[in-house]
Write a structure and sequence with these properties.
The chain has 360 residues and is an all-beta fold. The chain contains one helix and 28 strands. The strands form seven sheets. The chain has a four-stranded antiparallel β-sheet with strand order 1-28-27-26, with no helix packed on it. The protein has a four-stranded antiparallel β-sheet with strand order 2-3-4-5, with no helix packed on it.
């Protein structure tokens, strides 16, 4: 699959990120063995997940069946918290849940509904019906997400906001309205500002024209400002006071970068060309974690994700794991992911330096 085809697919609201098969019949009765060094299993049950997040209360994930699950802290037994009746798009981008103080925010695989689910399973509110709700973030007090300004892409996109504790029927506030035909490819909130990466929904055959070479920011209710950055930024996320993102230095390569508000962008690493697309980005213990998938991936194939770690100060990417089924997420339990055997695993962050690459 070419980069242009991938980006055109993303512009139409469908990306090439892999999803686990729906018909796995593997047994979940055997607990995997553990080792002193390396990832350890968190539960003996096999986990059917597409995206993960976690905090001190547990590890949360969404499934191909449009369900929200949790492995509570200290328990080996996963619990289903909520479900959505929508039909999952097999090529839709898996969006990690957002874990708040007492709730988890998540979108189903069809990206049609934004849910707010109590961590204790005591309730599930559908707080928004979205049309492009693949990108959402929080600053700890409010939730932000993207949608088309109307049913037509030519009217641009909007960023909507709602307090995390708002009533289920409360109306969201529109904060950003992009120019006609402009979409939003990623979203992050940090340091009192909202950041997003734009892209034209009507792409040309010229790769450099697919996305603008800037990150845009909105702070304090004022007008948005374009921030300097490498060409074709995307996959914004935040960690502490840092804004993390990926970019395309050329059509075959993915670069990783970050900046601290209001600092200049710093290029951290360039990933191997064969791992040309980013499936997830996070940070832990001074490391930038990038989950990638091969440039020849197409929808319907089993996932074969790779996990790289690079010091945030810069350096060569270190390959930690291969054949992951989900992007890795940084959590108090460690670097968590689902492996090829559908085991929910955690790699302690302090072991990254000592981890030996699985590929010679």
């Amino acid at each position: 699959m070419s980069c242009v085809s991938f980006l055109l697919a993303l512009a139409l609201g469908c990306s090439a990120l892999p999803l686990p098969p729906h018909d796995d019949a593997a047994s979940a009765t055997e607990a995997p063995s553990t080792t002193a060094l390396g990832p350890r299993p968190l539960t003996p049950a096999h986990v059917d997940a597409i995206a993960l997040a976690g905090d001190d209360s547990g590890i949360y994930w969404t499934s191909p069946a449009n369900e929200l699950w949790v492995l509570p802290a200290g328990s080996p037994i996963p619990v289903r918290l909520a479900s959505d009746p929508g039909v999952t798009d097999s090529c839709s981008t898996p969006t990690p849940p957002l874990v708040a103080a007492s709730h988890v925010f998540w979108v189903a695989g069809n990206r049609a509904t934004l849910h707010r689910t109590r961590k204790d399973g005591g309730g599930d509110d559908r707080i928004a019906i979205t049309t492009s709700g693949n990108h959402f973030t929080t600053d700890g007090s409010a939730i932000y997400w993207t949608a088309l300004a109307s049913d037509e892409a030519k009217d641009g996109s909007v960023v909507l906001s709602l307090r995390e504790d708002a009533a289920a029927d409360a109306a969201p506030t529109a904060l950003v309205h992009t120019a006609p035909y402009d979409g939003i490819s990623s979203l992050a909130a940090v340091g009192g500002a909202l950041y997003w990466t734009p892209y034209p929904t009507l792409a040309t055959i010229y790769y450099a024209d697919i996305w603008a070479g800037t990150v845009e920011a909105l702070a304090g209710g004022g007008a948005g400002a374009k921030l300097p950055g490498p060409q074709s930024p995307y996959a914004l996320t935040s960690a502490g006071g840092d804004v993390l993102f990926a970019f395309y230095p050329d059509r075959f390569t993915t670069g990783l970068a970050h900046f601290t508000t209001p600092g200049e962008p710093q290029i951290v690493a360039t990933l191997p060309p064969d791992d040309g697309f980013l499936a997830g980005l996070s940070a832990a213990a001074g490391w930038l974690l990038a989950t990638t998938y091969p440039s020849d991936y197409s929808c319907g194939q089993p996932p074969v994700l790779h996990l790289y770690a690079t010091p945030l100060a810069g350096g060569a990417p270190k390959l930690l794991e291969t054949a992951l089924r989900t992007p890795a997420a940084a959590a108090p339990q460690g670097i968590v992911f689902v492996d090829a055997a559908r085991r929910l695993m955690a790699l302690p962050a302090d072991q990254i330096e000592r981890t030996v690459s699985p590929v010679p």
